[in-house]
Design a protein that fits this description.
Helix content is 30%, strand content 16%. With 339 residues, it is α/β, with parallel strands linked by helices. The protein has a single domain, classed as Alpha/Beta hydrolase fold, catalytic domain (Rossmann fold). Strands 3-2-1-5-4-6-7-8-9-10 form a 10-stranded mixed sheet, with helices on both faces. Helix 4 packs parallel to helix 5. The longest helix is centred in the middle third of the chain and has 23 residues.
Length: 339
């Protein structure tokens, strides 16, 4: 059967539309329902937004100025802050988890998603271990033309990786850092780690002393990036050198990632979150664990089942909290299939 050009565009648009999370109504300031989202008193929650920053084609020429807020649990609101104020709270006893959301979600929606993720993780966290959560909100609000916009957002992940690498390069090297990337958040995370290994988060023409920081732990959820990207000779090949452990949560039934190849009609990449990791990883292969989650998530491309299922929370906990001793209650859970 021969399709007209308009029909092909409609078909491609439908496939790429599935890479979207339906956006919530956006607000100029972060807004959270206080009665439902009171964090643990020992935890810190920060919000870093790059939504007003331009794209960068290569390394940064000047320090970026993202908007930063800290959540005030007593006042149940967000207080304006800065990167310097955030970094002033660096503490080797407090692990930092950076959560990077996926595509086509509003500013307010990204905060709501991160809070859902945090509250489910915190409900199983040890009471004597504080956590600092950094919500990384990037410009992913839906554009007018679906296919063009999805490709533009995928290209934007390169700039976001540069910004995140710059931020990571300024966190105290003694702080334990974990990173969680969902969908298009995954290439931001792996790209940032590659750049951190490459130039330490330095600004272009403004070199900084190389600091050997603690290696990170990483969770990739339904990763919308090339399955070969971390292999030797590939785009983010240095990322695993900055990783202690990496958990890749895949879904081989994901109806959106099945069509991921359309984000780049020339390269036609296969999604890491659909097919699993591929290529030569060398000595870094032992750092990687992959779990197929289709029995839990089904065919949908949606973040919520991944971050609310108790068995997946148990799997993610050592990577996010640096806590390798699971509570006895979690050991008997039926966990998904590893590979």
């Amino acid at each position: 059967m021969i399709f007209r050009q308009g029909a092909w565009a409609a078909l491609l648009g439908a496939a790429l539309l599935a890479l979207i999370v339906a956006p919530l109504s956006a607000g100029e300031k972060p807004c959270i329902s206080a009665c439902l989202t009171r964090p643990r008193p020992q935890d810190q929650i920060w919000l870093v937004s790059t939504r007003e920053l331009d794209c960068v084609d290569c390394r940064l020429m000047a320090p970026p100025k993202p908007a930063v807020w800290k959540y005030d649990a007593l006042q149940c609101n967000w207080q304006p802050a800065s990167v310097d104020k955030l970094l002033a709270t660096d503490n080797p006893e407090t692990p930092t988890n950076i959560f990077v959301h996926g595509n086509w979600i509003s500013f307010e929606g990204s905060v709501q998603e991160a809070f859902t993720y945090y509250l489910n993780q915190a409900s199983y966290a040890p009471s004597d271990r504080p956590l600092r959560l950094v919500i990384w909100s990037w410009p992913s609000t839906r554009g007018r033309h679906p296919v063009r916009d999805v490709r533009a957002k995928y290209a934007r992940t390169d700039s976001e990786a540069e910004y995140l690498a710059w931020f990571l390069g300024r966190v105290s090297p003694r702080v334990k850092v974990s990173l969680t990337g969902y969908s298009f958040g995954a290439p931001i995370v792996t790209g940032a780690l590659h750049r951190l290994a490459l130039h330490g988060g330095a600004l272009d023409r403004m070199p900084v002393p190389r600091v050997e920081r603690e290696v990170s732990r990483v969770v990739l959820i339904a990763a919308a990036e090339d399955r070969y990207v971390l292999a030797a000779g590939q785009e983010h090949e240095l990322a695993l050198s900055r990783v202690e452990l990496l958990l890749n949560l895949t879904n081989g039934c994901d109806s959106a990632l099945k069509y991921f190849r359309f984000v780049d009609p020339c390269a036609r990449p296969e999604a890491l979150g659909y097919h699993g990791m591929a290529g030569y990883l060398g000595v870094h292969a032992a750092k990687v664990e992959q779990i197929e989650c289709s029995a839990i998530v089904g065919k949908q491309h949606y973040w919520r089942p991944f971050v609310t299922d108790p068995s997946l929370i148990a799997e993610m906990r050592p990577y996010i909290w640096f806590d390798d001793a699971w509570p006895d209650a979690m050991v008997d859970l039926a966990l998904p299939a590893r590979r």
